[in-house]
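Weekly sync notes, structure subgroup
Attendees: PM, AL, DS (notes)

Item 1: joint prediction request from the bench team. They want all two components modeled as one assembly rather than separately. Inputs as received:
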Amino acid sequence: MASDNDTNTLAELSSQLSAAVEQIGEHTVAIHARRRIPSSGVIWREGVIVSASHTVRRDGDVRVKLPSGDDVVAHVVGRDAATDLVVLRAPEVKSPPAPRADVNAARVGSFVLAVGRPGRTVTASFGIVSADVDGWRSGSGARLDRVLRLDLAVYDGFSGGPLIAASGGVIGIDNSAFARGGAAALPASVVDPVVDELLTRGHIRRPFIGVGVHPVALGSAVVERNDLSHDGALVVVSLAEGEAADAAGILLGDLLIAVDGRPLARPSDLLDALSGVSEGGSLRATVLRGGVPHEVTIEPRDRDRGGAAA
Amino acid sequence: MTTVPAVPPYGIGSDASRLASMLRRTVVEIRSPVGGGAGIIWGRGLVVTNAHCVRRDAPLTIEVNGETHSVKSVAFACDHDLALLRAPSVAGPVLELRDPDTLRPGELVFAYGHPLGVSHALAMGALHGVVRDERTGDPRYIAADIRLAPGNSGGPLVDADGKLVGVNSMIVGGLGVAIPASAVQGFVTRAVNLRAA
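Output from the run, pasted for the record:
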């Protein structure tokens, strides 16, 4: 086949794909922290391994098999429920971090490979980026800036492994848990800040005020009387004792109309407002109580484990 | 941090169709009471397929290049799910074999066969990995991220150069599983020597 034409682009593409897998395979490890098959992880920085949190079932010290075949011990530094990422520190891992792909290598339709190491050897599956989704709302209610949906086969050891470009280089971390078992990946731009925060803090800061809310529609009379720009609001249906909202004087039955001047129509609007609060910052909430508007300042606290309730 | 540049676009469509027209002359369609599948011409008058595609002592016909031939099975290796058929009137190009030890995950692979009754269909995928015998270290199976269906059984899995990687045999967890070309060659050599002796 190759002999009758000098330029076999198929063979060229094929060897480029396998070279890309081989290159990143040198930065892909097997993590022994669940029953049955090990999970895959990526050497993200020197001595730092990133994987999918749901595949690493144990905390503390876990055994990691390196591409060289050597076993080392890695320590689970922290997890993020929202992005389903886990960061491990393995001081014995001296190999340089996996090279990154060009940003143009992950457009919709780009050829990509999912690489894994569910054991001793490297495995790969091949496909395309099928969608690039901004503002993905995960099952736990957290917003992910960007998720890549993939058209490729999900196999044992897929989650936690690297998604790589056909031209080589890491695009992100594979995960089948975001899209009900479908293939998806978190791009490096989303992974990096999570890794930074987990390495410095051990967990992801989640501003938390301790209210449960439900959306309601305000009557037109109420909207006119208070000169509101919208007719939606959130009614406070539960209040965590001693948490930020309670401490700020929010009462059960209060109607939250706006936060920092931004209208609240859905619970996700409140989550978005919270995620924008910097450390030590506060929110100005506009509250309708007994038909009378109040301004309340709430200082969110940091909650260790992420969750949907704001 | 190093960055790898993006690739220029490839015109691979014409290459894949060339591969398909080459395989069309060397892959046969097998019809048997157990359903049939695909087979590979392995030299003059010999065809290799999966054991599960044929039945011992049952009438068999194969179709190649639009002609129908009647054939009989001569050897089975049930541990490898392989069968060797003798079809004196069949001839066609013989595929070069790919050494399983040189296979690299991520390589492009192609399956040719008759999935779900669609004759002479080509599928593309990537090599997933080589499963080795834990005792001997010999390649036991080739796993490929490729879409296979009943009718692909007994057909070839080839690389981008058209060399035979393996004989498609099973679908496990969505992955295609093939018997390595080296194991097939070993089976054919043993079967032919046995008959000659």
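Discussion: The helical segments of chain B are 13-24, 181-196.
Action: AL to compare against the crosslinking data before next sync.
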